[in-house]
Amino acid sequence: MARRPLPRILSSGSAHIARSREMARSAADSATDVLHPLITITRGLRLLAGSGRRKWAATPKERRGPALFLVAACVLVVALLPYGPLLTLISVMAVAGWKGRDRTPARKGPNDAELQRLRSLYEALVPYFSVPEDPSPLFAHGGEWDKAFDEYEFDADGRLTRLRVSYPAYFTDGEDSSRVRIEHLLHTKSGRGREYLFDWDEEGNELVMSVLPPLPTDIAAQRFVTTPGETVLGFTDAAAVRRTVPVMEGDTTRDAPPVVWRTGARSTEPHLLVVGRPGSGTTSLLRSIALQALAHGDVVIVDGNGTGEYASLTGRTGVLAVECGLSGALSGLEWAANETERRLIAANRARQSGHAVPDDTKRPLWLLLDRPSAFSHPAAADGRPDPQELLQVPLRHGRAANVTVVVAEQFDTLDALSRTVRTHTRARVVLGAATRDELASVLGAPPHTTPTPETPTGRGYARLGTGPVLRLQVPATPDPYDDATSDAHRRAVLDLLPDRHTPPGATTEPTDTATRTAEPDPEPAPPARTKVKPRPRQSQAPVPAAVPAEG
Ligand SMILES: Nc1ncnc2c1ncn2[C@@H]1O[C@H](COP(=O)(O)OP(=O)(O)OP(=O)(O)O)[C@@H](O)[C@H]1O
């Protein structure tokens, strides 16, 4: 059977309809192009009219009369001016055109993946931020997440970088354990491997979580711009401190936010305790402090490690002693205790007789003790006092006598520190990996940030007295005599060292000499800047790390 042709309307209809649609679309496009200025101006006029209406509504009733009068006066002036109405019309059109211009709207709201992240975060928070008794809970399974998350930001990889969470007033945000649970959950769900800052606003029932950039690790030892009495412990977040200091990085200078510790008579935390794990950079921090202290004062170093990491300081001007053995440590600290008393008495006498405090009581004296607990056992075995006992006077009265004590100790041997040391060292630093409890026990408060995914050496936290816990990165101040030290760092440290006051060959005394120095001095030797120079005790003879040689 021959096939009958389809009716014309069915065979050519679809093509016809498509053509008509195409024509209509191009006509609409052309009309839009032609009418575009008109559309823009109309939109602008509508916006202007809207803002005018709002302004009028916001004007107090008693001011409406004068405002109307002013407008009428303006209209009259414009009407009387030559070309006034025309110029006004052109100006209004121009303003309307500017106001109504097409601003491509920025993408609002999260994309699908981000939306999914926010929803799952919201769902995860429901058990923590809701109670069955709440009739209209902010957090409920399947609830409106956008009411709880007021602000959010994602990075290019779609990971959260900032989130503001509103939570119900009954959440126990005053309890550390409740906060820790929320912080842990948000940290885990938002992606590990980054450091987060949690900022709790208890009054507003809001929590802001933000990602912190890593602290720069490329600042090396250098002369920092500080006043006498200020020591740069390291560098922190720009938002955490009010001040910056210029720092050199290679050939460039930039401003960095320092953690500045103030010592001396007006300091509220005149002594420092540094705690860390082995290799965390505590010795480097003490070296950095020594280099800064030597710019204005004298230094006595007691090295319980006995590994000679302070050898570069031996015999330098202002370095009164570098002690590695028990006898040397005892005699050095005994001298320091006597010197503290001498300064106090001299200053007191001068004040009572109405004179100025003598200059030789003002020069800062620093006692830097690296792992003093290493001496405790040999001292007990030998029936001699623990060197820490000799710190009582400098710690208790050092502030008035310009004597500053810095103690570095490791977590494992923290118990061996005397009560006096713990009580009087109110400036605290923790370096290296540490649990939240360890940080809280040393600093007196936990940090508001999550632990670092990788802890570079010299990275940790600082807290000065009752101040906030600050992230800290210590400037690289390695031992210049260490073969592993880079040339740039070696040069940086050597440039900061004062000149030698004794030739290098005379620095190493045999162990028996160090033992001899254990005999108490008939009179305490005054510091280097006074008329008589103290006898520098450099017992740098190599000794085992834990047990000093002469015991
Ligand atoms: N802030 C820092 N920047 C770069 N490198 C550092 C920093 N602090 C320390 N280091 C390097 O880390 C290593 C260990 O440092 P340091 O000796 O100061 O640690 P420590 O805590 O005293 O450890 P230990 O008690 O085992 O000697 C050294 O090679 C040192 O150069």
TrEMBL record:
Stretches that traverse the bilayer: 68-98
Domain FtsK: 256-440
Glycoprotein listed as a keyword: no
Stretch list, region Disordered: 440-464, 496-551
Domain of life: Bacteria
One MF term in the entry's GO annotations: ATP binding
Residues at which ATP binds: G276, R277, P278, G279, S280, G281, T282, T283
Keyword Nucleotide-binding: yes
Keywords: ATP-binding, Membrane, Nucleotide-binding, Transmembrane, Transmembrane helix
Biased composition, class Low complexity, residue ranges: 503-517, 537-551
UniProt protein name: FtsK domain-containing protein
Organism: Streptomyces niveus
